[in-house]
Amino acid sequence: MEWQPDEQGLQQVLQLLKDSQSPDTATQRAVQEKLEQLNQFPDFNNYLIFVLTSLKSEDEPTRSLSGLILKNNVKAHYQNFPSNVADFIKRECLNNIGDPSPLIRATIGILITTIASKGELRTWPELLPQLCNLLNSEDYNTCEGSFGALQKICEDSSELLDSDALNRPLNIMIPKFLQFFKHCSPKIRSHAIACVNQFIIGRAQALMDNIDTFIESLFALAGDEDCEVRKNVCRALVMLLEVRIDRLIPHMHSIIQYMLQRTQDPDENVALEACEFWLTLAEQPICKEALSGHLVQLIPILVNGMKYSEIDIILLKGDVEEDETVPDSEQDIKPRFHKSRTVTLQHEGGEGEEGEDFDDDEDDDDDTLSDWNLRKCSAAALDVLANVFREELLPHLLPLLKGLLFHPDWVIKESGILVLGAIAEGCMQGMVPYLPELIPHLIQCLCDKKALVRSIACWTLSRYAHWVVSQPPDAHLKPLMTELLKRILDGNKRVQEAACSAFATLEEEACTELVPYLSFILDTLVFAFGKYQHKNLLILYDAIGTLADSVGHHLNQPEYIQKLMPPLIAKWNELKDEDKDLFPLLECLSSVATALQSGFLPYCEPVYQRCVTLVQKTLAQAMMYSQQPDQYEAPDKDFMIVALDLLSGLAEGLGGHVDTLVARSNIMTLLFQCMQDTMPEVRQSSFALLGDLTKACFPHVKPCIAEFMPILGKNLNPEFISVCNNATWAIGEICMQMGVEMQPYIPMVLNQLVEIINRPNTPKTLLENTGTVFNSSHRCSTLLRTG
């Protein structure tokens, strides 16, 4: 007999569902406790599915909520459901997939796909055939509900659906989906394309077998009136460009014409999907040939897409000019990830081999919007196309640029400044003749009355920093630096952030050119300490650290130390050991300690001790977690990584002065553990510190060499390039200190080092560090005797 609810139990569940919609925190807490109690009763889940599918008298939000609570239970406890409960839920889902309410249909679809993702696709053999059969239903709701569920299953389980484990159901599903591309309902057409789209990137065989039918069906939908259908057609063509460009090439002219139209679609979601096409095409070898004749149409479209929309300006509070006294909310602050120290021969702390991603650069400009929008995509597309076409782009762009940059409407002027920044990398050579006129105009824009114009001017100027620095300092560097420093103290937080980031870029390019202005720069940065809210304070640390890296020992003057160190140490003392704001501050102090050298001595002891404590605490937490994962949380090892990197900075900056600090601590024991950590970034920073300690105070390292060398040998694995690089560098430093005493340890590393030298595509830094080891070994005559 089919399960039936007890009336009293049903009322209890309904009351709980009503209470859970209350905004009151105490009520919410009581609901959570009650849910945990009810989850002890297996048929509680029967009540939840009953409310979702059968209790039509209840309002839709309550029914949907019941389904979502059930979904969470499935996620957390499905393996403990009695089989009769699981079967009842599955049966009810399939019987009610055609509920008249779109909200309930969608909730049932989510529930079905959650059950399927718990391994049930294998043990629920009737699910896919039944959903596919229901697509043929005359009833629209049943067809749409089934398609909604199938779309979610295709999104969550695309690989499994294309495997032998399920007897390759796609062989039936893909041709079935293609039939529905012609359905009279736009919602069904949209579902059908979205389902097939899930299998393009993975090149599912069933789709490859039907690829021509698929492409023809997409072309037939090109003029569809429904924006969701158009969006899915654009998405499909963008993915096909990546995986089956051979099938698109014969139609490329028509596709480009179509995408030019769609990039101007009145629906921004469609326009965004279409705009992705230009980004993807730019990566294809045929780009130049395919697009050359269309640039005259494409460039104005992309430039037009780079304007802020009205909704963007509202979201960005574009009318708010001064907000520096408004505290940041926690969601404003993106999580930061520490980049471990990589040792080069010059020990600059980074390899500098990766190019910068446009989205990261531009992201600072409008980060309170969704991460990706038409403005950003258009700018990124122009950036990559500038790198493909170089100066050939300028005849199409320069006539537009003049009108934009000097336009009286600030929104249009702002977009022109963004255009100028977007083409900086690709068109630099062609832009050089215009820069003596443009750079002063951009510097003037730093004083614009609109904050969004001031902030984009900061970013664009940073893209031309290399050229600015190549000119006589009084020409552009000095006026730019002066204005950027004013903007660092702007009354608008977005401008502060953009100016700080731009100034850090300028510091990297200018290096010691900034030395004459250090006093002025430090006054500004230190003043900002008292002015900035939480988020921008983290960027300020970066600007100070970059300054230290750029001017090096020139910072080691009593006047500069007196300006800089008190506010940094005040922040250092303010922050607790578990505060993640320590990451950027530790990174900053690492650069400052390296630059100040002996000038850091008065501050080194408490900083050193705290770093050792951070490493020790993290290792202890990791140990407890590995022994009792149920009782302890996994530690955030970034605390340990940044602490190791600051210790490296201290050892490099203080040299022999670090000796007494090392003597009074257990750092060598801790280093032995860190060098064997499972996380590559921890090992990477450990080997950097080992090399620095070897240079600074070798007598403390020497007794540990016998234990350390086998670990170093194990880490000469080029698969982990940065770990391998730092381990090789540390071995080189040890070789130089050990001399002939190195002989017993050479066999532990020799074969791996030879392999690195002979390996194709080994990065230059790693080859240099490996070469240093061979040279040191050779000088000690140990290598010859071994070989």
UniProtKB/TrEMBL annotation:
Q: Which is one GO molecular function term here?
A: small GTPase binding
Entry annotated with the keyword Metal-binding: no
Q: Does the keyword Nucleus apply?
A: yes
Q: Which GO terms describe its biological process?
A: protein import into nucleus
**Which superkingdom is the protein from?**
Eukaryota
The main place the protein resides is cytoplasm
Residues in a coiled coil are: none
Question: Keyword annotations for this protein?
Answer: Cytoplasm, Nucleus, Protein transport, Repeat, Transport
Q: Where is this region: Disordered?
A: 325-366
* A cellular component annotation (GO) from this entry: nuclear lumen
Domain named Importin N-terminal is located at 31-99
Q: What is its subcellular localisation?
A: Cytoplasm; Nucleus
Q: Where is the composition biased (Acidic residues)?
A: 351-366
Task: Give the UniProt family note.
Answer: Belongs to the importin beta family. Importin beta-2 subfamily.
Spell out the protein name for this chain: Transportin-1
Q: Which species?
A: Periophthalmus magnuspinnatus
Q: What is the lineage of its organism?
A: Eukaryota, Metazoa, Chordata, Craniata, Vertebrata
